[in-house]
């Protein structure tokens, strides 16, 4: 099998939820195949006994039958059951089976099976937490803990800091002893966890309820914050990706001073290096970009009409000019927060 190539398609915004589709290109039986799985769904990722799956258990593969070039039908004997009522024997069909580790009769696996809404078949999908038991021991240990719980659940994850080198390559560091805080919404009680030397953390089992989670406890670093709902026997995985704590924010208004919400904003470094950041303008015309390193930035808008259609001239640079050469560069120091980067869009453009 050739070396996999991993592609990621991301959508960035100031909204705390980020979507991604990870596509891995592989060689399979002399052909190139694409293995697609979900990436970052949201601030929290389920990691335990979830209702998305009908059956979760450790089982033995009794037989493997090819039903197509890439898919298999499996006959499985369940053993230790964590969710569902799989019985003494069942049949499951693979989804993206060529992307899964090879399955043979006699193999012991941790299975996460879902029920297909149309065919009603049980499905073993690529991208699920399923896998050979020697590769899923940590997950199995977590499941065994969860099924013994009653009105508590688990929140765990990691903290990491990507550092970009001058040549554009990226390396991650994982800070130890970093404090993560979970604040229970109901009564404001705070719970604290600390990362280990590999950047991993886990709270003691938390009572059922909603918690505001943050790792923004070190000056100069910022990571996305959000809320987690702890369910009975539930598990949520939250990864915090640190960035320099620079911020640019402002408001978009028309020449008459009215908020302009039918626009998308972009921010990038003046020299064009580094990623482009999409800025979402809310209904009151406000936008915000967090996690910015020190540098010189260009900020511009793509103005839309009231129906959301772009129409020329659509691009306006800060502070409200159409000519890029007249744009004002926003200078940002280390961990600096620049507000009032306000656009006053010409009437002829704010249709």
Describe the 3D structure.
There is one protein chain. The protein has one helix spanning 137-146; strands at residues 5-11, 19-28, 31-38, 45-46, 55-66, 72-83, 90-95, 108-115, 122-125, 131-132, 152-164, 170-173, 179-184, 190-194, 200-202, 206-207, 209-214, 221-222, 226-230, 235-241, 243-244, 246-254, 263-269, 277-280, 286-292, 295-304, 310-317, 330-332, 337-338, 343-345. Strand 5 (55-66) and strand 6 form a beta hairpin. The protein is globular and about 70 Å long. The model is unreliable at 1-20 and 307-313 (pLDDT under 50). The strands form seven sheets. Strands 4, 11, 12, 15, 16 and 20 form a six-stranded mixed sheet that branches. Strands 5-6-7-9-8 form a five-stranded mixed barrel. The protein is built from one helix and 30 strands. With 351 residues, the chain is an all-beta fold. The longest helix has 10 residues, at 137-146. Helices cover 3% and strands 51% of the residues. The chain has four domains: 1-42, no CATH class; 44-144, OB fold (Dihydrolipoamide Acetyltransferase, E2P) (Beta Barrel); 150-244, Immunoglobulins (Immunoglobulin-like, Sandwich); 246-345, Sandwich (Immunoglobulin-like), CATH 2.60.40.10.
């Amino acid at each position: 099998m050739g070396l996999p190539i991993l592609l990621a398609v991301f959508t960035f915004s100031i909204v705390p939820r980020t979507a991604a589709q990870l596509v891995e290109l592989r060689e399979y039986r002399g052909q190139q195949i694409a293995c697609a799985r979900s990436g970052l769904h949201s601030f929290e990722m389920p990691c335990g006994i979830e209702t998305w799956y009908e059956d979760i258990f450790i089982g033995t593969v009794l037989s493997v039958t090819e039903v197509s070039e890439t898919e298999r039908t499996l006959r499985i004997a369940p053993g230790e059951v964590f969710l569902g009522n799989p019985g003494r024997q069942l049949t499951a069909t693979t989804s993206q089976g060529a992307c899964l580790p090879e399955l043979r009769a006699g193999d012991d696996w941790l299975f996460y099976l879902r029920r297909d809404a149309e065919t009603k078949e049980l499905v073993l999908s690529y991208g699920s937490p399923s896998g050979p038991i020697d590769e899923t021991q940590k997950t199995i240990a977590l499941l065994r803990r969860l099924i013994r719980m009653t009105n508590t659940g688990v929140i765990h994850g990691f903290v990491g800091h990507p550092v970009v080198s001058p040549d554009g390559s990226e390396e991650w560091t994982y800070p130890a002893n970093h404090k993560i805080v979970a604040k229970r919404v109901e009564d404001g009680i705070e719970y604290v966890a600390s990362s280990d030397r590999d950047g991993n953390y886990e709270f003691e089992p938390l009572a059922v309820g909603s918690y505001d989670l943050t790792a923004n406890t070190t000056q100069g670093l910022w990571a996305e914050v959000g809320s987690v709902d702890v369910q009975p026997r539930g598990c949520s995985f939250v990864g915090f990706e640190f960035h320099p704590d620079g911020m640019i924010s402002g408001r978009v208004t028309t020449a008459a001073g009215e908020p302009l919400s039918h626009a998308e904003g972009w921010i990038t470094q003046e020299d064009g290096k580094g990623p482009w950041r999409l800025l979402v303008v809310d209904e009151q015309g406000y936008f915000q970009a967090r996690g910015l390193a020190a540098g010189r930035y260009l900020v511009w808008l793509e103005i839309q009409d009231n129906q959301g259609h772009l129409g020329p001239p659509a691009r306006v640079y800060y502070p409200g000019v159409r000519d890029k050469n007249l744009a004002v560069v926003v200078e940002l120091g280390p961990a600096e927060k620049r507000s009032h980067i306000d656009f006053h869009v010409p009437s002829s453009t704010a249709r």
